[in-house]
Write a structure and sequence with these properties.
- The protein is α+β, with helices and mostly antiparallel strands.
- It folds into two domains: 159 residues, 2-Layer Sandwich (Nucleotidyltransferase, domain 5); 137 residues, Taq DNA Polymerase, Chain T, domain 4 (Up-down Bundle).
- The strands form three sheets. The chain has a five-stranded mixed beta sheet. A three-stranded antiparallel beta sheet has the order 6-8-7. The chain has a two-stranded antiparallel ribbon with strand order 9-10.
- It is elongated.
- The two termini are 40 Å apart.
């Protein structure tokens, strides 16, 4: 399988055929057409980071079947006990160590002062191939690297396609729980209704459940021996004000994380388009950058229709 390494040189894209083959220089506006023309040959596209290349191709209607995401592969190899780390060291190794993905609200390809432009994908690919070839676990590691790179394509395609999301259903669900959409800066009606009940129960007329430090002080002033205001801590307390307080905190969290502002920011054209990040967590699991795509609260999941 032939690989094609893509890299930026100012406003020009260079496409290097694998094994020291031809080098094609393209204007950035010609990249999508070039990739589309080569894709029937099923090459493996090698790039510094899929988040910098693939979203633009998808926006132009071009999908690819295979890639090598050097950023993700670098992270795997650098953390592997089965790799000779000396084989991965080069002049720009620290840059590869620090390279982060771009997100939906950031410019990607040809962004000004992109740290990826200071890296050498050709040299990094050679180092990764040498490290993999010398590993006693080259078979399993190779599969993992291929899976990580495939995940990079999937993540970009998921973001591009979006998840079906009914803003009107989401609005109705919020209204049923919180009341009508409030004016910016004000609490929803249900929170305003709970507030005097909570204050009366604790005998604290100025109690503010939205302030962690203020809430902690109010609870302690009411004679409760607490050191934090986490939900599981409060749930263990016996006090008539705890039930409405927990209800308030639950609804307040929904309002702040997946309320009407969330709809405005993340839903357009009937689709929810978060930025998915393969290996985005410290454990290597997927994460999402903004939108909470992997932790949508149960109260609003019916809007995903």
């Amino acid at each position: 399988m032939r690989s094609v390494v893509l890299l930026r040189r100012g406003d020009v894209v260079e496409a290097h055929d694998g094994d020291g083959g031809a080098v094609t220089r393209l204007a950035r506006e010609d990249l999508a057409g070039f990739v589309a023309a080569r894709e029937p040959d099923r090459p493996r596209w090698v790039w510094d980071d899929a988040t910098r290349w693939y979203p633009g191709l998808l926006a132009a209607g071009v999908r690819v079947e295979r890639c090598t995401d050097l950023r993700l592969c670098h992270a795997v190899l650098r953390r592997s006990a089965h790799v000779d780390q000396d084989l991965l060291v080069g002049p720009d190794t620290e840059g590869w160590d620090a390279l982060a993905p771009t997100t939906a609200d950031e410019p990607a390809l040809f962004a000004l002062d992109d740290p990826a432009d200071r890296l050498d994908p050709l040299a990094e690919l050679a180092r990764q191939q040498a490290a993999l070839a010398a590993s006693p676990e080259r078979g399993r590691l190779g599969l993992l690297l291929a899976a990580e790179s495939a995940g990079a394509l999937v993540a970009a395609e998921l973001q591009h396609a979006g998840m079906p999301w009914r803003a009107d259903v989401h609005d109705r669900l919020l209204s049923d729980l919180l009341g009508p959409r409030p004016v910016t800066g004000q609490r929803p009606a249900e929170l305003e209704r709970l507030l005097p009940e909570i204050r009366a129960a604790f005998g604290q007329p100025a109690m503010n459940p939205d302030s962690p430090t203020g809430l902690l002080a109010s609870l302690q002033a009411a004679g409760l021996a607490v050191t934090d205001t986490r939900q599981w801590t409060l749930a263990e307390l016996e006090h008539p004000g705890i039930e409405p307080l927990l209800r308030y905190k639950q609804l307040s969290h929904l309002f702040s994380t997946n309320g009407w502002a969330w709809i405005d920011q993340w839903v357009s054209g009937g689709r929810f388009r978060p930025s998915y990040q393969p290996a985005g967590s410290t454990t290597g699991r997927w994460s999402s950058n903004g939108g909470g795509a992997l932790s949508i609260p149960v109260q609003v999941r019916p809007a995903a229709v």
